[in-house]
Design a protein that fits this description.
By secondary structure, the protein is α+β, with helices and mostly antiparallel strands. It has a domain of 56 residues: Gyrase A, domain 2, CATH 3.30.1360. Helix content is 40%, strand content 26%. The longest helix has 18 residues.
């Protein structure tokens, strides 16, 4: 798992070959996030996707964030990351 814990959150940065791939990756995360009712902060553009997970109510990383990180990893497997 390529997650880094810093600033009371889990972070994952992914390089992509182009904008469309970044868009598709972000789109692949919507369903799992909605199903878990746990929504990551997402940023993307040409060549990158940035994901941040934290539980704002708890003020930092919780088991819910770690579980969502695993779901994110699973959703991104088809992209080879």
């Amino acid at each position: 798992m390529s997650w880094i814990e810093r600033d009371n959150a889990l972070h994952r940065d992914i390089r992509t070959p182009d904008f469309m791939t970044a868009y598709k990756m972000v789109s692949a995360l919507v369903g799992p996030a909605e199903a878990a009712n746990h929504h990551p902060d997402l940023a993307f553009g040409w060549g990158y996707v940035r994901i941040k997970l934290t539980t704002h109510d708890a003020g930092g990383v919780t088991a819910q964030d770690r579980a969502m990180a695993l779901k994110v990893d699973e959703a991104l497997k088809p992209f080879g990351v």
